[in-house]
Amino acid sequence: DAKKNLKNGTHLRGDINILMVGDPSTAKSQLLRSAMTIAPLAVSTTGKGSSGVGLTAAVTSDPDTNERRLEAGAMVLADRG
What is the CA radius of gyration of the chain? Predict the structure, then answer.
């Protein structure tokens, strides 16, 4: 983690965020899956599997108790909550 607080009050997070865009069948998913094996805190999402709401939060149901809960989405987790 390479956080920095500059003298002028600017805060630099030091985290890497990646947006990969490209033609189909150019190994984008394989590259990301490989990167996730070496980055334990990595969060990955796809255009097919995510809505704008799903990126911020999701309501899930516990299979045992049927209680509903709010879970953080990919954008929230990527920004450390």
Answer: 16
Phi, psi (degrees; rounded to nearest 5) at 57: -165, 160
Beta-carbon count within 10 A of 47 CB: 7
Among residues 10, 31, 11, the alpha carbon closest in space to that of 80 is found at: 11
Q: How far apart are CA 70 and CA 25, in angstroms?
A: 35
Q: What is the pLDDT of residues 45-78, one digit of tens each?
A: 666 555 655 667 778 888 899 899 887 776 666 6
pTM: 0.41
3-state DSSP of 6-46 = CCCCCEECCCCCCCCCCCCCCCHHHHHHHHHHHCCCCCCCC
The rounded distance, in Å, linking the Cα atoms of 56 and 71 is 9
